[in-house]
Amino acid sequence: MILSVKLTQLFLTLFIIILFLVNLAFAGISTAFIYNNAHEQAEEVIDTVSDNISDHDEHKNKNEWKLFLNAYLARQSNDAISLKTPKGKTVYSEDGEELFEKVKNHKNYNNVVFMENSVYYLRTAAEDGYQISVILNVDDLFTLITHLLLAIIILNLIAIICSIPLIKRFSRKWSQPIEKIDQDIEAIEHQTTAKKKVFVPKQPAEIHHLAQSFNKLLEYQDKAIQREQQFVTDASHELKTPLAAIRGNINLIKRLGKEHPEIIAKSLQYIDSESSRMEILFNELLELGRAKKQHQSIGPIDLVPIVQKESEILEQEYNTCSVYISSPTKIFYPIEVKDFRLIIHNLLDNAAKYSQNNAKINIELQKDHVYLTLRVKDQGIGIREENYDKIFDRFYREDQAQAFTGGQATEQTQTSNSISLSQSDAINKFNEKYGSKSIKGIELKNKKNEYIYEVEGFDSEKEYKVKIDAKSQKILRTKTDGDKKDKKRKEGSSRSQRK
Questions:
Q1: CA dihedral (425, 428, 433, 438) positive or negative
Q2: Rounded CA gap, 454 and 478, in Å?
Q3: CATH number, domain 2-145
Q4: What is d(CA 307, CA 313) in angstroms, rounded to the nearest whole number?
Q5: Is 457 helix (H, G, I), strand (E, B) or coil?
Q6: What is the pTM of this model?
Q7: How far apart are CA 245 and CA 144, in angstroms?
Q8: A Gene Ontology MF term for this entry (predicted)?
């Protein structure tokens, strides 16, 4: 409501200013018209008088000159003419001498004389030795212009009064969508609404476009916040498992290091392995967390050698896969080397990981005048059409039954809703059961649509195995191998008996 009042005041003020400027322009134009008209009349009278003066007119008496000059004046006007002959004699039209005397006592503003309640135009010119002066009364023209100006002012006042309701209506039309947008912004700011968009009015067009642009900005900001939150979630998820393993081995060294120093080397080796793994995780997460990074000028690079190199590395790592490349000899494209290498590595790694033995992986790299096309085809399980929109989700995999592969945290995916226990939680369950141990291995298995974690650990004396339900988080079965020294003695004794 306050905005509507302010807009009404603003528009009304602008309207009044415009009317004032129009009236001022009218007054200026009218004054110029009166001045030019009086000047033309005076010039016409002077030219006419000078054209009708002859040489013998110099001998006329005063009355004859008066009659001569009166002939060039309008009968009903308060005008006057004075004529100064070459011999210095000055004659006037009827009542002209008195009028010229009055004019001499008043200031002349560019040939305009304001005297009492009248306005006169004075013009003097010399023709053939005669000095002719003309005074014209322009009261009638000023009166006409003044009446017109007063009429216009009255019409302006009527227009202002009539325009107030229209201006109020127009202001409400503008202010209501703006106030609605302001309310939506305030609701978003105070988190009193679940929606993250403001009202988009159809009209006016300017506010419509403004609201659309603001919604795009909100959407971009919301996605940025989601990326940050997702990054934190991913980092926590990825780092929890190696941290839990490192802490477990540190606690194991603290408790048993003095009594069983042989476990220190193995635990330190495991800690070193997990710390290296964490370093890789940090780098991968930082690379994953970059969004719309600002590039400097990037020159084109040849992509074919990068594809060939990554293919060779993959074939060495996965002996059961064969990679076939279809591409020109050279393809240049502006991209950072590490970015393209990461893309190729991830695509090939996934293709090999989820394909059967002796699988073929085909890489097609082509470029036209617009696009660079990279295709990686494998013989894996594929992705169902209804899941196409999930391809770029973090940690998504089509085969949710094999949600964890190879024990690598960066390759773990979000399993179906039936799995509520993560690897690190399973390790914590193991430690709650047996205390801090060195973790030998952890694996998630699917048995008849039931997800079971199998966790193996050890210390200097025993080995431990635990099976944990990934949905209910209950320990299903535990197994402990006896004292390792006793076991070795028993094995030696049995061998002696056999001998």
A1: positive
A2: 10
A3: 3.30.450.20
A4: 10
A5: strand
A6: 0.39
A7: 103
A8: phosphorelay sensor kinase activity
